[in-house]
Amino acid sequence: MPPIDELLKAGDYSAAISELRNGRLTPLPNSEQYAAQYDPKLHDINDPRKRPDKLVVIDKDSEEYGEVKNINVNAELTTEQGFRIEPVARIALALQKLIVKRAVAFTFGNPVAYDADPQNDEEKAVLAALKRVLHDVKEKTLNRRVARSLYSTTEVAEYWYPVEGDEEHDLYGFTTKMKFRVALFSPAFGDRLYPYFDDTRDLIAFSREFTKKTDDLTTRSFFETYTKDAHYLWAAEGTTIGAAKNWELVEGYPKKLTLGKIPVVYGNQPAVEWEDVESLIDRLEKLLSNFADTNDYHASPKIFVEGKILGFARKGEAGAIIEGEEGAKATYLSWAQAPESVKLEIETLLRLIYAITQTPDISFESVKGIGAVSGIALQLLFMDAHLKVQDKMEVFDDYLTRRANILLAYLGAANVKSKAAARRLIVTPRITPYIIEDEQAKINTLQSANGGKPVASQKATVRRLGWAEDPDAELAEIHADEDRENAHYEGEPTY
Description:
495 residues, flat, three-stranded antiparallel sheet
């Protein structure tokens, strides 16, 4: 097969799209399956085909018999019997969502730091512009959305592009009409992502297939491709992703790109976060649902009667007497089977789910007996989650570095004076796993290292606390109170 660039230049778009689809190093994620696992409403436990309701026989003498439609389809049974559908318990657990939420929180609970060593004012200005771009696109929220897509669908991509406004601004430290924006691509949004790598696993093209309604309200399929030189967009009839044919180039495309690199960041991981515990979650849901059914049948006391009962107590009647013929007996049926084995299995399954996915169990029930814990204890409590974040850095180190490099290239292109500085500047993203800070332990450690002396001024601590709207005025008031307390009144003994 000719290189993709040759196919695109030759205008053989059908062959080019086919080649771009085949350029993935890994199979497309099973988006429908992952979405069903992620949404508790779509779990197998809620599927009546996999967990059918119960068919209950109703005797013809029952008051309910005449009200229930006879649905007997068994030739061996007669119409003397009626049937009703008894719904079974269906307990679906959102553990997949919980696992993803915890992983996202520990990965990006703290803002990403961008370490750099600018050597001059120009490089400092470029670094400041980079941080301003990230601030404007709400980078913290963007990072969490990226992680959520990666963890729940196995892949994600973001596309950076400039937008020219009507007015000039100097938000980036230089005068321009350009602002930089970002769009997120994800299987969770209905996108199919096609990264195209060469033999050395360098990304040489990135494509996205999706559907949308056009201006005439017709839903069409689209296939777009980004290379370092151009942006292509094709359209075809049909709404089924992956099956559309007869692609036509959309008017106005291809659009020339002058950035010198593909303006797309792509990240993936082998499996969703809950992949290894999906069977355990399924088992836990069945176990809890069956246990709930058992409780429904046996939780309330039942009376077993031998002989004929002449009179029975009314509901709520105090001091009630049950009257029966001579020899009649009435005894309570008790549930002799203790649910200890069920409880043990439930606890074991939950423990394994948390352990295998490296998800800390920080529920109220789990931590209520811990009490006040030290900083070391907190680190131990969250160690597994932090080790998991360390593993995720294999993806995010490259991902965030590529993002920074794309933005540096855009900033250098937008301001010719800083182009060389943007090219020289090396920016290294740094992820800090989330942890609850033990402020007192940190202060004690710093004071001990400082020979027992204070490590911050009173003004700094007032400002850090954040209670006062005006820290300077608040500090002045504190000093005034101290002066009044230390002042001596006329005639007051001083000994």
